[in-house]
Every structure is written in structure tokens, then in C-alpha cells.
Write the C-alpha cells for this entry.
Amino acid sequence: MESKYCLYLEFDSSVEEYFPQPRTFTVSVGAELRTYTPDFEVRYVSGGRKYVEVKPSERAKSEHYQELFTGFEESLENTGASFLLVDETEIYQRPLLSNYEKLYQYRKRPTLDVRNLHRCAELISSAIRSRFLGQL
């Protein structure tokens, strides 16, 4: 699910950058300390920052995760960062996800500049002619 969520981040114009598994935090849950590593840190163009957990809704509803997420959210107070829990209902939206999957393959391809393409063709032609004349 995390990789699918990355597609949403890639197409969100408010996202400046994001990092997977950014760091491990020590979180106070009741009387005990637990470690927690969010799935993503997302930095926004606005300067905002969120730690994101991508988790199936059934698992996220468990007492263990509810306590952990509450403790983590409390630990973020006064840091300028917030916490976001994302589940499968938000990720597997049709047709949005399938559209992102199709578009992503074209998004990362460099666009061809026709002038560069012509220059490349000239250089190849020149090299072929030089090689051919050198064999005569």
C-alpha cells in the first residue's frame, strides 16, 4: 500500500518532497516507551510537515496501534509537524489510482527537445560517414 500512496504524493502539487521511513521515534504510551517509525515524512511547499502512516484500517483500529498513534501524535505537539493515518479506502480510489498508475510512467520520462534530436541525428550521420570514408 505504501508504494500506491507514493503515487498520490507524486501527483500532489502541494508536496515539495517526501521521505520513506524517515526516522525512529521513542513514544510514550502510558507507563511504557515504544519505538515507532512512520512510513513517510512529507514536506509541503507551504512549509508544513506531516508524518504519515499507511496501514490497513482493520490493523490501525487495534488497541496497540491506537495507543501508539495517539502517543506519537501527542509527541508531535509544538514541533510544527502533524500525523496522518492513511488506509486502503483512501488509497484504492477508482479511477484515481489507476489513472495515476498510467500517468506515472510518462511523468518521469524526459521530454525530447526536437533540436537535440536533430543534433543527435547529425552527429550519428557524421560519424557513420567518417567511418565509411575511413574504410575506403
Q: What stands out?
A: The mean pLDDT is 85.
